[in-house]
Amino acid sequence: MNDTICAISTAVGIGAISIVRVSGDEAIDIVNKIYDRDLSKMDSHTINYGHIVDGKEVIDEVMVSLMKAPKTFTKEDIVEINCHGGISATNKVLELLLNNGARLAEPGEFTKRAFLNGRIDLLEAESVMDMIDAKTENARKLAMNGIEGKISNLIHEIVDRLYDINSNIEVNIDYPEYEDIEVMTIDNIKDITSFIDEKLNKLLKESENGKIIKEGINTLIIGRPNVGKSSILNKLINEEKAIVTDIAGTTRDIVEGQIRVGGVLLNLIDTAGIRNTEDVVEKIGVEKSLGLIKEADLIILVLNNNEPLTKEDKELLELTKDKKRIIAINKVDLETKLDESELDGEIVKICATKDISILKDKISDLYNLEELNNKELTYLSNSRQISLVKKAISINNNLIKSLNDGLPIDILEIDIKEICETLNEIIGESYDEKLIDRLFANFCLGK
Fold first, then answer.
1. Does 273 lie in the same domain as 366?
2. Which of 43, 84, 320, 419 has the most CB within a 10 Å radius?
3. Same domain flag for 312 and 288
4. What average pLDDT does the structure give for the chain?
5. The CATH number of the domain where 15 resides is what?
């Protein structure tokens, strides 16, 4: 944290502009060694024209942004060199910074410093990466709400109220003769346990929405050979990505594509037709298809309207009965030979060579995507946050039970402190250094 770091903060490649970011106590001094103007004489939060030089050689014509601590992202001095977007020029500027005392930043180290210096909390830091990764408008909104600290504010409110109650408990312990204070404290504990139960369970219940918005819906298209799986994929993504023939077993490996439905990304996987086969290559594809069922968020099980249910169809129906599933009866333009009375669950009838918008509508209805778009997008967005909220809810349930059992107030304090510690882990008020290193290692370089 005492050294000065630098990195290229824009995507590597050819473009109009590249930005090389420098942060740390020596940021201004190091840049001054390669800049033909004196940044120490410039006002903070200004952008200045000049040249990057290596001795007498001019390397690039640049604009340099100067932001002095503490009003910066990292709360350290930050200098950003806006150079031409060529790969050679950008790398040369970075090389000069490294040669003059800066260290190459680790992935996510700028954001890590912002967190460690108290500029943002851990939830906000994770939301920064969510913003970078956002592929849909809803994902962007979700990340922005995280950056603005909407969930953090709720957690701070709960923790602050618990701290106040703990202060009262200490008074009760030190001055047991004041029974009215203990009664008031018990009432306050009941109020906060109800508040925690309501707010955190609501967050947890809606956490699936956060995962859907952030990661999309992993959608597996399965069925036996030649029922139209590849045609459905091609129609959904409006691209001839999967090979379609009348020959059963044409698709031997998974084929992937992405579309947006109701503002949410659908990660589509077309699988090899599932059947018993002696073909070695096809058999590998079938095994891979079966293995993907457990990982999928949504199964689109395709059946052929022009044929009665087969043994393979029935096996797939049984295998996917506990998954979120849509049964797509394909080839409805042909004679109906399939008995629908043998089917159970969400069903759509389509012709994959024509319009299959009804399938998109069914997915939207199944996940309430229209309602999701009309909600304020303030959800948990990763497994770390969700697991800690579950833990806090569990401790709160113990606290409620202890209250109902009439346990002494100093015993209640144990659960209250544990809830505080758990919620503080979510926002990073308390943390494990190895966990922090692991989290920020997933960030992109220069962020």
1. yes
2. 419
3. yes
4. 83
5. 3.30.1360.120
In this prediction, residue 91 carries a pLDDT of 93
Tokens of 72: 């910066």
User: The domain spanning residue 288 has which CATH number?
Assistant: 3.40.50.300
- The answer to whether residue 438 sits within a structural domain is no
Q: In what order do the strands lie in the sheet with 346-349?
A: 255-261, 264-270, 217-222, 298-304, 325-330, 346-349
Question: Same structural domain for residues 202 and 219?
Answer: no
Query: What is the DSSP code (8-state) at residue 16?
Result: S
Domain contains 401: yes
Q: Is the pLDDT of residue 248 over 50?
A: no
Residues 329, 335, 337, CA angle at the centre, nearest 5°?
Answer: 65
- DSSP letter assigned to residue 340: G
**Residue 187 has what DSSP assignment?**
H
pLDDT tens per residue across span 115-161 = 999 999 888 888 888 887 777 777 777 777 777 788 889 899 999 99
d(CA 359, CA 302): 11
What is the pTM (predicted TM-score) of this model?
A: 0.69
- Number of domains the chain contains: 3
443 occurs within a structural domain: no
Q: What is residue 213's three-state secondary structure?
A: helix
Strands 264-270 and 217-222: parallel
pLDDT band at 1 (very low <50, low <70, confident <90, very high): low
Domain of residue 288 covers 214-373
Q: How many CB atoms lie within 10 A of CB 281?
A: 12
- In angstroms, the Cα distances linking 182 to 173, 176, 178, 398 are 9, 8, 7, 20
Confidence of residue 289 (pLDDT cuts 50, 70, 90): low
| 358, 323 contact by CB (below 8 A) | no
Mean per-residue pLDDT, 67-96: 94
Q: Would you list the DSSP string of 293-316?
A: TTT-SEEEEEEETTS---HHHHHH
User: What own/partner pairs with CB < 8 Å and gap ≥ 24 does 398-403 have?
Assistant: 399/189, 399/193, 400/193, 400/197, 403/186, 403/189, 403/190, 403/193
Main-chain phi, psi angles of 108, to 5 degrees: 75, 10
Q: Are residues 227 and 354 in the same domain?
A: yes
Are 228 and 369 in the same domain? Answer: yes
CATH number of the domain encompassing residue 400: 1.20.120.430
One domain, residues 308 and 403: no
* Residue where the block lists tokens 């990982």: 295
Average pLDDT estimate for 91-98: 95
Decide if 424 is inside a domain. yes
55 and 130 housed in the same domain = no
CA distance 248 to 239: 21
pLDDT at 23 over 50: yes
